[in-house]
From TrEMBL, chain A:
This is Sugar ABC transporter permease. It holds the Pfam family BPD_transp_1. The lineage of its organism: Bacteria, Pseudomonadati, Pseudomonadota, Alphaproteobacteria, Rhodospirillales. Residues 1-10 have a biased composition (Pro residues). It comes from Azospirillum griseum. It comes from the Bacteria. It is found in: Cell membrane. Belongs to the binding-protein-dependent transport system permease family. The keyword rRNA-binding does not apply. GO terms for biological process: transmembrane transport.
UniProtKB/TrEMBL annotation, chain B:
GO terms for cellular component: ATP-binding cassette (ABC) transporter complex, substrate-binding subunit-containing; maltose transport complex. InterPro entries: AAA+_ATPase, ABC_transporter-like_ATP-bd, ABC_transporter-like_CS, ABC_transpr_MalK-like, ABC_transpr_MalK/UgpC-like, Mo/tungstate-bd_C_term_dom, NA-bd_OB-fold, P-loop_NTPase. Keywords: ATP-binding, Nucleotide-binding, Transport. Belongs to the ABC transporter superfamily. Coiled coil: none annotated. GO terms for molecular function: ABC-type maltose transporter activity; ATP binding; ATP hydrolysis activity. It comes from Azospirillum griseum. SMART domains: AAA. This is sn-glycerol-3-phosphate ABC transporter ATP-binding protein UgpC. Residues 4-234 form the ABC transporter domain. It comes from the Bacteria.
């Protein structure tokens, strides 16, 4: 492989005549200096990553095969092998949390991605006030999830919250009031709607960047070829955004699996564990029940699960680097 | 195949007017080239004919039908873009078939048209490749193929050779000329390169600042430029200009005086506004000025630069009151920078432009 930052070594005739010794020494020296600069620049980031990401992860793998408990510090920490993993896999609440998380991701990922694309296309068009809408749609994303949850808690209050009032008025009093967060069948859909609303701005911005990188002449060529606006979207926009789709779907999936804040604030996993999630399950095990070994095992399982899903997704939809 | 007619075509963006009323009749099957410097409005005019830019005023007629409000497809135009604008995720075959698919054409017809275009453009081997796996020249041929398959009434080319290297540009230029001979369609071609314009066009439209400076065959433009702008734009190396004055009007023929007072009798006649003593500009093509030519007029020059071009050399010289005079000479006598001599020219070969830059009649 050639190093792009250096010109190629002089070839036979031309190189020889111009003092080959000096050229070679010069190149080697500058290559060494270059390598040192690269190492110097990478070190801070690598140190931080190692300290706050790799080390804790390795620690949690280590802890996951022990019975380490935060409360019972005096007790001797023992190696328990795969016992934690076994008891997690036997725990019905774990499977409930896994199913809830999967359910959340299965709905959120396609809905949020599609909605983000729709919004991006709208705010990318020549509509008046598009800059205002870009800001409005992105605003919830910059708010803390805790703040968003508290605001929505007010809107969703049963029976006299704003949403119930709205549903009641619009249906002429036929529908509602609903206990949005207290009803086992309504709680998860409500959490999904709230999460999509809060998160969609982020994906919209990614799609917007993707849309703006499409060569405008492609649309002109398509117009000359007689493609309607919808056909242009179908045949130019969608395929041109292939790499953006891959990124958005992966990022949204990972974010969906990390579902925690809104659930912890609004429903505490209830009612009847219907909104409990994997992250909340391992958070509770570790920091409320203080079973750190057990929680570490759960976090390792969670990591493997997300890694597996990501790998499958990547295999299914490869980035197209040709374009 | 169709004639195209432009009547008082205007374009403005809000208050800013960029095309100021263009009249042009393009005959059926004619190869017309719009040429001019950057920002002269040539691409805008082409895009207005294509239907990509709205026409602010005037009438555009294609094949006898007013086309101002028609879509590109209704106009029956196909366009080749400077950047090729190939659909990157589609194969060469799908790129060429796209227009017909949009028109819901019959599958066998599509296959037949694509095969025909691929044969004409020697693209058969590349039909299943993506554009990213093609060279610049091949991409340009696909772009042309995409236009061909639709059997358009009018072909539009927007600087199609600008992104190609010099050798490929010559080849593709010849290919486009051949294509025009074979297909016989009306073609409108935009370029800033006067060599492309000269070699391809039946007629050239020279544009400047959103106005037509002159319309004519390449020979007309070269031999009888209507004004100083056309004279300097057409021809490579460009025409040389010398300041002069009107010294005498002998029976309608002008005699000019060069900066050093030397009299030059010409073929040119005075226009109504011409007065004795008016400043004028003499224009001389590089091939009409030579160190030891047959011409009767002489001009003292000093060589400033010499360019070797193999079959000939260009001498760049200064003369009293003028710099950058160009002479095109065959090999022969060796010259050196700093040489002084009397260059000769034939007074019947020169061009004369009045104070406003308009050519005086012969």
């Amino acid at each position: 492989m050639t190093d792009p930052s250096h010109p190629p070594q002089p070839t036979a005739a031309g190189g020889r005549s111009a003092s080959p010794g000096i050229t070679t020494t010069g190149t080697t020296t500058s290559r060494r200096a270059n390598r040192r600069t690269v190492a110097l620049m990478l070190t801070p980031a690598l140190l931080l990553l190692a300290l706050f990401l790799v080390l804790p992860f390795l620690l949690s793998i280590g802890l996951s095969v022990t019975n380490y408990n935060l409360l019972n510090r005096r007790a001797v920490t023992l190696f328990v092998g795969l016992a934690n993993y076994a008891s997690i896999l036997e725990d019905e609440r774990f499977w409930q949390a896994a199913w809830n998380t999967a359910r959340f991701a299965l709905v959120t990922v396609p809905v949020q991605s599609a909605l983000a694309l729709l919004l991006a296309v709208l705010v990318n068009s020549g509509l008046p006030g598009r800059n205002l809408f870009r800001g409005v749609y992105f605003l919830p994303t910059v708010l803390s999830m805790a703040v968003v949850s508290v605001i929505w808690a007010g809107l969703l209050r049963a029976p006299q919250g704003v949403l119930n009032a709205l549903v009641g008025t619009l249906s002429g009093g036929v529908l509602g009031p609903y206990d949005w967060l207290g009803d086992e069948t309504l709680a998860m859909p409500t959490i999904i709607v709230l999460s999509v609303w809060q998160g969609v701005g982020f994906q919209m911005v990614i799609y917007l960047a993707g849309l703006q990188s499409i060569n405008a002449e492609l649309y002109e060529a398509a117009r000359i070829d007689g493609a309607s606006r919808f056909q242009q979207f179908l045949h130019i926009t969608l395929p041109s955004l292939r790499n953006t789709h891959v990124f958005v779907v992966l990022a949204t999936t990972v974010l969906a699996f990390k579902l925690f804040g809104q659930v912890d604030v609004l429903t505490q996993g209830g009612p009847l564990d219907s909104t409990n999630t994997l992250v909340r399950y391992l958070f509770n095990s570790g920091f409320r029940e203080h079973r750190v070994g057990f929680a570490s095992a759960a976090s390792v399982l969670f990591f493997l699960l997300v890694l597996g899903i990501t790998l499958v997704q990547r295999a299914l939809v490869r980035e197209d680097r040709e374009i | 195949m169709a004639p195209v007619s432009l009547r008082q075509i205007r374009k403005s963006y809000h208050e800013l007017s960029v095309i100021h009323g263009i009249d042009l009749e393009i005959a059926d099957g004619e190869f017309i080239v719009f040429v001019g410097p950057s920002g002269c409005g040539k691409s805008t005019l082409l895009r207005m004919i294509a239907g990509l830019e709205e026409i602010t005023g005037g009438d555009l007629t294609i094949d006898g039908v007013r086309a101002n409000d028609q879509s590109p497809v209704e106009r029956g135009v196909a366009m080749v873009f400077q950047s090729y604008a190939l659909y990157p995720h589609m194969t060469v075959r799908d790129n060429m078939a796209f227009g017909l698919k949009m028109a819901k054409a019959d599958r066998t017809l599509i296959a037949q048209r694509v095969a025909e275009a691929a044969r004409i453009l020697h693209l058969e081997r590349y039909l299943d490749r993506r554009p990213s796996a093609l060279s610049g020249g091949q991409r340009q041929r696909v772009a042309i193929g995409r236009a061909i398959v639709r059997h358009p009434k009018v072909f539009l080319f927007d600087e199609p050779l600008s992104n190609l290297d010099a050798a490929l540009r010559v080849n593709t230029r010849l290919e486009i000329a051949r294509l025009h001979r074979d297909l016989g369609n009306t073609m409108i071609y935009v370029t800033h390169d006067q060599v492309e314009a000269m070699t391809l066009a039946d007629r050239i439209v020279v544009l400047n600042g959103g106005r037509v400076e002159q319309v004519g065959t390449p020979a007309e433009l070269y031999e009888r430029p209507a004004n100083r702008f056309v004279a300097s734009f057409i021809g490579s190396p460009a025409m040389s200009f010398l300041p002069a004055q009107i010294a005498a009007l002998d029976g309608g023929r002008l005699t000019l005086a060069l900066a050093d007072g030397r009299p030059i009798p010409t073929h040119h006649r005075a226009s109504e506004a011409t007065r004795l003593g008016d400043p004028v500009t003499i224009g001389l093509r590089p091939e009409h000025l030579a160190p030891d030519g047959p011409g009767s007029a002489a001009l003292p020059v000093e060589i400033q630069d010499i360019e070797y071009h193999g079959d000939r050399r260009f001498l760049y010289a200064s003369a009293p009151g003028a710099n950058g005079l160009t002479m095109a000479i065959p090999g022969g006598r060796p010259f050196q920078v700093g040489d002084r001599f009397d260059a000769r020219f034939d007074p019947t070969a020169l061009h004369v432009f009045d104070g406003a830059g308009v050519a005086l009649p012969v």
